[in-house]
Amino acid sequence: MESALDKYLEEHCSFNSEALNWLERQTNIRTNYPRMLSGRVQGAFLYMLGRMIRPQKVLEIGTFTGYSTICIALGLPEGGHVDTLEINDELQDLIEEGFSRSGTQDRITLHIGDALEFMKSVAENEYDMVFIDANKREYPEYYENAVRLTRPGGFILADDVLWDGKVYAENVPGDRQTAGIVRFNELAAGDPGVETVILPVRHGLSIIRKKEKED
């Protein structure tokens, strides 16, 4: 259920798109877990971040129905491109229709398959920005690969890193999803090669900058 804060944030967010509104409706109708959709406020943040740091190559781990992918693509500079990874091939038709409706299809390549296999096949320093929003159990492995794939000075973003407060609960649950996020947060905070901050946006958004040699 939408909180008063969520409603207020949406009412004061200028970012809007008919294609994204359509995709949000279709996600609620056609998927079992529509809560996984990034939503307007986080989507606006991803769009704004693209406008600020102007990445030419972006990797997204976890497309779901493509909402966040479109937001990132809309914020790219001319010639920018997103590689987005999704393991569920049943979502492909919906994803691709969303890309088409938003006019971003030429800026996005959808890869259906295992994210870690794809990441391990790519050369290091390939991307300016990596956005992680997929299998929470694999967040530590995503982190290790994302650091390798991100150029110095580039950014890694990760969604759900507060995990509804479970990661800082007095008694942290022992399930694999929570453990994966806890380990991810520990890796980022303890890595001398990066700078990191967690924002309480949606379910927690981690922003990690890979340091350059002169830092």
Low-confidence stretches: none
Q: Percent helix among the residues? A: 40-55%
Average of pLDDT: 95
Q: What topology, given as strand order, has the largest sheet?
A: 3-2-1-4-5-7-6
Number of helices: 8
**Whole-Å distance between the termini?**
43 Å
Please state roughly what percent of the residues sit in beta strands, choosing from under 5%, 5-15%, 15-25%, 25-35%, 35-45% or over 45%. 15-25%
Number of strands: 7
Shape annotation = globular
Q: What is the H/E string?
A: HHHEHEHEHEHEHEE
Radius of gyration: 16 Å
Structural class: alpha/beta
Largest sheet: 7 strands, mixed
What does it look like?
With 215 residues, the chain is α/β, with parallel strands linked by helices. The chain is 40% helix and 20% strand. The protein has 8 helices and 7 strands; from the N terminus they run αααβαβαβαβαβαββ. Strand 2, helix 5 and strand 3 form a beta-alpha-beta unit. The chain is globular, with a radius of gyration of 16 Å.
